[in-house]
Amino acid sequence: MKTILVIDDDETLLDLATNLLTHHNYAVLTARNGQEGVRVLKNQLPDLIVLDVLMPVMDGFQFYKTIKSQKEYAQIPVIILTSRSQMRDTFLAIGVDCFIVKPYESKDLLSRIEQLTKGQSVDNLQISDQKIKLLETKAALDDLKRVLVAGTPSPMIPILQKSAKEKNYLVVFADSGSDLVEKTILVAPVVILLNAQVENITAYEIIRRLKQRPNFKSKVLLFSYFRNIDSATYSASHFFYAKYLNDDFKDDPSPPYYLGAFSKKDVKETFAKSFERFLK
Fold this sequence. Notes:
Structural class: alpha/beta
Order of helices and strands: EHEHEHEHEHHEHEHEHEHEH
Strand content: 15-25%
Number of domains: 2
Number of strands: 10
Largest sheet: 5 strands, parallel
């Protein structure tokens, strides 16, 4: 089993990266700044390091220079993972193995980790330019209100886009629970639409982590999707969210709301009406 050291001062993103990697059969070590990362290295050498840049005590740039100057650590591949796209050229110039701009797709990060732990090189420019384009698009569309969507089945996508366009909203799609948290930070959505059956992490855990963030104001909507609506009757998640969600968040000034269960057959008729009520 390969071991990955993740260094990030954001507890939420650190936890999400840990969950993602352990789910894909990696052993994970963590540190909250570069200084902690150096201490971890003295006890155990990882196969790869995923490194944030802006951190207290010792930032990512200082950490990178420190380990690359020491023979025992110099050969460990490093992935820089940051929202600071303008730092790309600096890190590539000093020889970083991979530079990925947040928000990232989980599959992209996993792919690069697999490549680097197998001794393969990656195309830094292609990865970074793709993410930079997303950031530039976000900046250009700041006047549009945004809906962030995670775990949406394909039959719902055109309905979402049509409803959002009519209300002057931009739809941004997240690939996973961790991707949703990061894109929430980046695009500041008015509404978050979350499939209650999102993979790898429970919807409750995603909501909890989102609401721990300062100045979080997005309205969170949950839904369930089934091949046929009769399946909802036998679904524990549908029963749980329909019965307990309101009670569990009754003291929250902006509680999440469960839209209900939908199927391919009735989604056009019922989902759009349920969803559009929250697009003001």
